[in-house]
Design a protein that fits this description.
Helices cover 46% and strands 15% of the residues. The chain is an alpha/beta fold and 397 residues long. The strands form two sheets. Strands 3-2-1-4-5-6-7 form a seven-stranded parallel sheet, with helices on both faces. Strands 10-9-8-11-12-13 form a six-stranded parallel sheet, with helices on both faces. Helix 10 links the parallel strand 9 and strand 10. The chain binds uridine-diphosphate-N-acetylglucosamine. The site of uridine-diphosphate-N-acetylglucosamine has 18 residues, from helix 1, helix 5 and helix 10.
Length: 397
């Protein structure tokens, strides 16, 4: 390459554990287009503990962020306000052409708002997912991000349908697949060769894996108690290991629920890194979770997943995957887990474009965005390429 091309200054915003997982393959793929795309990695610091942040950067081979805000925890208003202020300052300085935000976090919504108001193009990775429940902060964030984004990168076909139903311009919607699955497939090559860490003391028997962090479940004493009671209903038959998010850990103490844990109950451990988690997940008899990403990962790993929410924004995992919605209801949780222990296992298939090539499709589209900005004379060719990706969306309708 001549090195004389105009590069597309692209800011990629991350803040939380799942963002790191999803940004990694996009940044890796962009390396191939170094003459055309200049990526800048901004970490808001929404997650800052080493086992929620630094460890993930190491294991994913993610390069150090170019900018770190260190916003930390706080109320939604406090946290979002800090990100808005810091991101505006950095945007004024870096003057990017494109900002890429990921998922549904406070980091993503704040960055998207600053970029859109600063007349910078915004692309949303994992666009169009909806739980249709605005009591969840993530749903509010998604609605805002999608409304103000210029490009919508969709993981599953319901995402496209939701966006079109909301009046989003079809030309801005790209069904690119699931970039989290790119990472899963990459990490699985390493994780599958590692033994299950002895620290978990799981032996060779059956075990369940529990994760829990959504506010509606863990900030509400009744819901948290109900879920722990439901999962405890099977601990005599199967060990259950629980790498516990700090938010949840604080509330277990606050609500006096520690009696659910111990040798004969649920085993509480610190949050684990991406590789240990994947190992635990891929060998589990079943997974109990309220995480969106884990509903997706278990579908690919073909591990039964019991989702501890009343609804899911990951519809494809219910229709095509291994996911079963049990909500925060103790009897339903115990009964569904017993069914699985008795052999009633829901098997699934691989959703479209969950094939490890989502980052490729995203970066191809970013290259076309660049072309339409800097080489409008060749836009015809660019549009044709963009259309190839878009055709998949049309075919899904
Ligand atoms: C956030 C996202 C959620 C995402 C999740 C991934 C929002 C509104 N929520 O939820 O969509 O699924 O990340 O994990 O953006 N804490 C620590 N150390 C840390 C980070 C957090 O101790 O490094 C504790 C603090 O007490 C904090 C609480 O966890 O108040 C919640 O953290 P926060 O980032 O606000 O939300 P999450 O629950 O992690």
């Amino acid at each position: 390459m001549s090195g004389l091309q105009q590069r597309l200054n692209t800011v990629i915003v991350v803040g939380t554990r799942p963002d790191f997982m999803k940004a990694a393959p996009i940044i890796e793929r962009m390396k191939r287009f170094d003459d055309f795309i200049d990526p800048m990695l901004v970490h808001t610091g929404q997650h800052y503990d080493s086992n929620l942040s630094g460890l993930f950067f190491d294991e994913l081979g993610l390069r150090k962020p170019d900018i770190y805000f260190g916003v930390g925890s706080g109320t939604h208003a406090e946290q979002t306000a800090r990100i808005l202020t810091e991101f505006e300052k950095s945007l004024i300085e870096s003057k990017p052409h494109l900002v890429i935000v990921i998922g549904n976090t406070n980091s993503a919504v704040a960055a998207a708002m600053v970029a859109a108001k600063g007349k910078v193009l915004v692309a949303h990775v994992e666009s169009g997912l909806r739980s249709f429940d605005t009591s969840q902060p993530e749903e509010i964030n998604r609605l805002i991000i999608d409304k103000i984004s210029d490009y919508h990168f969709v993981t599953e076909c319901t995402g496209s349908h939701n966006l079109l139903n909301e009046g989003v311009d079809e030309e801005s919607v790209f069904f690119v697949g699931n970039v989290l699955i790119d990472t899963l497939l990459n990490l699985n090559k390493i994780a599958s060769a590692r033994p299950l860490s002895r620290q978990f003391d799981l032996g060779d028997g059956k075990y369940g894996l529990l994760t829990l962090h959504k506010p509606e479940n863990v900030d509400n004493p009744k819901a948290l108690k109900n879920i722990l009671a439901g999962v405890s209903g099977v601990t005599e038959k199967m060990k259950v290991i629980f790498p516990c998010h700090p938010r949840t850990r604080n509330n277990i103490d606050k609500f006096n629920l520690i009696s659910y844990f111990g040798e004969s109950g649920i085993r509480l451990v610190e949050p684990v890194g991406a590789l240990d988690f994947l190992k635990l997940e891929s060998k589990a008899t079943m997974v109990f979770t309220d995480s969106g990403g884990i509903q997706e990962e278990t579908t690919i790993l073909n591990i039964p997943c019991l989702t501890l929410r009343k609804s899911t924004d990951r519809q494809v995992t219910l229709h095509e995957g291994t996911n079963i919605l049990v909500g925060p209801y103790p009897e339903r949780i115990t009964a569904a887990a017993e069914n699985i222990l008795n052999g009633a296992v829901k098997t699934g298939s691989t959703p479209k474009y969950w094939d490890g090539k989502a980052a490729e499709r995203i970066v191809d589209t970013v290259m076309n965005i660049r072309k339409s900005l800097f080489e409008p004379e060749s836009v015809k060719e660019g549009t044709a390429k963009v259309r190839t990706v878009r055709e998949a969306l049309v075919a899904e309708k």
